[in-house]
Amino acid sequence: MIQPVILSGGSGTRLWPLSREQMPKQFLSLTASQSLLQQTLSRLVGVTTAVPLLMGHHSHRFLMAEQLREMEQAATLVLEPEGRNTAPAIACAALLARQSGDDPLLLVLPADHVIGDVQAFQYSVSLAVPLAEAGYLVTFGVVPTQPETGYGYIACGDPLEGGHRLAAFIEKPDARRAAELVENGGYLWNSGMFLLPASRYLAELERLNPSMLEACKAAVSGAHRDLDFLRLDEAAFRRCPADSIDYAVMEHCDHAAVVPLAAQWSDIGSFDSLWATLEPDAAGNATKGDTWLTDTQDSLVFAEHRLVATLGVQNHIVVETSDSVLVAHRDQAQQVKQLVAALSQAG
Ligand code: GDD
Ligand code: MG
């Protein structure tokens, strides 16, 4: 059985002022009328009928419930009292999925990605199933296009039916190493999606980080229902060490595989990737809302509340919301994160 696990606990800051702590990017409708979370759930039609486990932060619970209601989607909403990154969230999902005595394959999907070719995504999942059934922790790999430092890199090893053995996993290399890896040619980007035999993931965690597993077991066994939500035990989860699946497990796992993914995937990690995903017009512009562009090229212009007019603007990002306006050069799209950190420090 394939059990979807949707990771929705992140608080993306690189799309400020569109995304906020209380409205992270998975809840925004950036590329379609559905939000990124809703698109992620829609993508499962035809893959599995199991009710997804939606893992998120308790402060977003009503937002998650409302977005599910809008699309008439059933899900088990599991609330974390505090973010502990992805390794514990997946561990809690695995423990919950194992409660019935089954040992499903967990299809772990970040809630904030865009996939242009859903059929290709579903094809990659079908290739991954026999590998996961054979006990591999499977990742989905994307051919890199630039030396991105925000991604994990996968070295492909011996061929397997449908993919490759994973020879090495390098999470978020520095700029020099990333350039070497892309130039080398034998590496794929980790898409951040996984197909994991639940028991195998838990066994790896037991080996690699037993205190994380112990805290997650206590958080799940002490979980309680609250309205339609399942709240993990707060004290137990708070003492859980924070780490991502990439650093905690994938970098140290010797029984992993990678399946290629060619599905127009993007994690919309910055305004620059949002601009590219929106398929800019002939002048290279991507716009939303009430905008008026004159002599403007290669820019992203978003207006949420007011008319935004530009004149003689190239390679810029202009984002207007009710309380803040961002004007930035496209080359510096990655630095928005630092800008937000500086702003919140300044109070
Ligand atoms: N439930 C829950 N709890 N979800 C979380 C938490 C948490 O504490 N922290 C992050 N998430 C969710 C995010 O909302 C996102 O959907 C997903 O988990 C991945 O977290 P990110 O913080 O976005 O990770 P990343 O983008 O830096 O890196 C990962 O994704 C890259 C591809 O986009 C890694 O897997 C990289 O190796 C990968 O290349
Ligand atoms: Mg991400």
Could you please describe the fold and organization of this structure?
This protein has 347 residues and is of the alpha/beta class. The chain contains eleven helices and 19 strands. A five-stranded mixed beta barrel has the order 6-9-7-8-12. Helix 6 crosses helix 7. The structure holds guanosine-5'-diphosphate-alpha-D-mannose (GDD) and magnesium ion (MG).
Shape, please?
globular
Counted beta strands: 19
The largest beta-sheet arranges its strands as 6-9-7-8-12
Which range does the strand content fall in? Answer: 25-35%
- Percent in helix: 25-40%
Query: What gap, in angstroms, lies between the N and C termini?
Result: 48 Å
- Give, in order, the helices and strands: EHEHEHEEHEEEHEHHEEHHEEHEEEEEEH
Radius of gyration: 20 Å
Q: What compounds sit in this structure? A: guanosine-5'-diphosphate-alpha-D-mannose, magnesium ion
Spans of 5+ residues with little confidence (pLDDT < 50)? none
Per-chain topology:
Elements: E1 2-7, H1 36-42, E2 53-57, H2 61-70, E3 76-80, H3 86-98, E4 105-110, E5 114-115, H4 118-133, E6 137-142, E7 152-160, E8 163-171, H5 175-184, E9 187-197, H6 198-208, H7 210-221, E10 224-226, E11 229-231, H8 234-238, H9 245-248, E12 256-260, E13 265-266, H10 271-277, E14 286-288, E15 291-297, E16 300-303, E17 308-314, E18 316-320, E19 325-329, H11 336-346
Parallel strand pairs: 1-2, 1-4, 2-3, 3-11, 6-12, 14-16, 15-17, 16-18
Antiparallel strand pairs: 4-9, 5-13, 6-9, 7-8, 7-9, 8-12, 10-11, 18-19
The structure holds guanosine-5'-diphosphate-alpha-D-mannose and magnesium ion.
